[in-house]
Input
Amino acid sequence: MKKYFFILFALVLAVTSCNDDKFLVEKSYKNDSETFYQTERAMEIGLASCYSEVQYVIYGCMRTTHSWMLMGCNLDTFTETSATGNINWASMGPSSGYARHWPDYMYKLANRANTVVDMIDNHPEIVYSTDTRKNELRAEAIFFRAWAYRVLAGMYGGVVYSEHMTSEPRYDYEMISREEAWKKIKDDFAWAEQNLPTKPRLLGTVTKAAAGHYLAEMCLAVGDFTGAEQAATRVINGTDGDYHLMVTRFGNRKDQAQDRYGNSLAAPQGAYWDLFRSSAKLDGSKAKDGNSNASDNKEAIWVCQSEFSSTDLWTLGGSGDSWWRTHCAPVEACWMPYVPLGGKNGTRVDTKGTKDESDDETFYVFTADATCFPAGRDVPNAGTPNAKITEAKGRKLAWNLNTATDSLACYSKGFNSANVGMGILTTEYVTRYAGDPLGSVWDDPNDFRGSEVMIQRNYFTPSGKRWFDVKKQAYERAALHVNDVDANGKKSNPYEITAADTMNITPRFWKFSDDMHPDFINLGYTIYDCDWYMIRIAETYLLRAEAYLAQGNKQKAADDINVIRARAGAKPCSAADVNIDYILDERIRELFGEEERFITLSRLSCNPNANKYISDCHPVQDATTANTMYDRVHKYGFGYEGAPGSRESYTDIYGKTRHYSNFKPHNYVFPIPTQIIQSNKDHKIEQNAGY
Output
C-alpha cells in the first residue's frame, strides 16, 4: 500500500513540476451577484431574502412599536400604553429611530428585489424548469420592489426610486413625489399580476391575486377608478385564482360548536372566528399549522410566514438580520389585557378579620383569581377559585398556570415572548358597544365581529358579575372604609383599589389570541402561532367598494360592503349610508389591527385624486390645517386621560373633560430620516412639511 502511494505521489509531483508557472499564478474567485445568480435555484434563493425581509418588518419588531407603525399605531384604532411612548407625535422628528426604521428596511428590500430582476435580465442563457418560470420569478421580484416602494410612499410621501440594483454608493439621488411613485408602483403590480401564477410556488409566496389586490389600491391612489374596479374584480371573480370569503367552518377547530363562554360559533359567523385560530386542535393536540395557512382557507391571499422551531426554541422566520432573536411571534402578548398580573391570589382581609382564609371577612379584588368563567361553564382543566370564599364556590377560573388551559392574559407582557415591551390599547371608538352615546364604530349590536365572541369586554368575577360592574361597587366600598384603622389605631384600608388592581383593563381580542396553547407544557412557551394575514379577500371587496364610490355608484359599493356584513350577521347598509368614512369604519370592523392603516389613511390625505369622493367627509386637505388622517385621529384617537400633558381638551356629553390626541395635520406622513438627507450630499432632499 505504501508503494502505490509513493508512485501516485511521484506522478503528482511530476505533473505539477512541469507546470510551476501556472501553479504559482494567483487566481481570484469572485463571489458577487454576477457569479452567484447563475441558475433558477439561485434566483429563488434571492427571492427568499425578500420574503425574509418582509417577515422581519412584520414579526421581528412586534415586541416594540416598529412593526405596528404600519398597522396604524397611535392613529384612530389603537395606541401604545404610554402617553410618551415611541410614536409620540408631539416629538416625532427626522432623527427618531422610529422615523428611520421602515426606510432602512424598505430600501434594502427594494434593492434585493432589483438584484433579482437585473440578474434575470442579465443572464438570458439560464435554462428554467418551465416556459413560464423565468417571468414568474421575475414577477415575484417586481412585486417586492413595488411593495417596498408602496410602503415608503404611503408612510413618507416622496421616494428615492430605482429600478436597478445598487452596488456602489451614490450621493446624488433625486426624490420623486408620491404620485410619481404611485404610477411606477401601479405599473409594477400590473406586470406582476400578468406574470405571477394563480397558485403559490411555495407556501407563503405571492400570486396573481396578491398583485391584483395591490394594483386595485394603487389605481385608487392615482385616480384610475375603473382600473381599480377591474383589478379588484379579477381577484373576486376567480380570474386571478381560487379565493373567496369563508362562510363555512374550516380548519383545526371547525367542529367546535361554541366558544369557551358558550356563545354560538355557527356558520357563517363562526368562519370569521376560524380565520384566527392557531395550530391548537379541539382535543388539545397540535396541528401542523394554524388556520391562516390551512388548505381550505380560501380567504387568505397572502400570509406572512413565521415558523417556530420546537427543537431550538427560536423562530425560523421573523428575526431577519437583527441583533436579537424572536422566541415566538409576540402578537398575542402585545394585545393582551394585564389585569391578572395585579396579584397572586386576589384576596384581601378587612381590618376586623384575620389572615385565616376560612374567615368570612376574606374577599376578592380585581386580580387573577377574580377572573372566572360564567356560572355553569364546566371547562376541563380550568383552575379553581378560593373555595373558602363563599361567592367562589362552584366556579371555574379562566386560567390555570399548570396546564395548557388558557390564561386570560397569556402572561401578557411577554412571558417568554422575546421580552415583549409593547402593550397595545384600543381606542374607545373601537371598544365601546354599539349604540354608546359617546360613539362607537359598531353600528349593529348583532355584528359578530364586535361581539363578546371576538372582543371580550366582560371578565367575570366569582360572584358571576361582570368586572366593570364590580369595579364600580369596589370604589363605592372603598369610600365607605376610607377612615378604617387597625387594632393599633393605624390607618388601614384593605378595600382601597390600587393601580395594580385596575391597570390596563382592556378587551381581549380573539382575532389576535387563542384559548388553547399546546406548546405551553412541552416548551414552556405560550405560543400563538397563527401567521399574519397580509391580504384577505375581504379587503379586496372594500377596495372595490371604494372604487364604486369614487365612480358615484353607491349602490354597488353598498353591495360589496354587504357581502362582508352578511358574513358577520350585521344588518345591511344602504346606498345612502356609503361614504368614505363608512368604508373606513367598515375596514375597522373587518380588518381591525390587520390592515396597513397608515397607508390607507395617508393615501386618502392630501391626495387630489381622492378629493372627488371624500370631500363630503373631509373637505380640507393640506399639511397645516386638516386632512383625512388628521380628522380621523383628532376625532377618534386616544387622548391619554391619565397623562393629558399639553393635549387639547374638550367636554364630552356627560360634562367630563377629555383630551384629543396630539396628532397634527403634517403627521399624515412621517419625516424623511436625517441620515437620508445628510448622506445624499450632492443633491438636496427636502424635508416633509411640518418637520
Residues 1-17, 339-345, 353-359, 407-419 have pLDDT under 50 and may be disordered. Residues 339-408+460-504 form one domain.
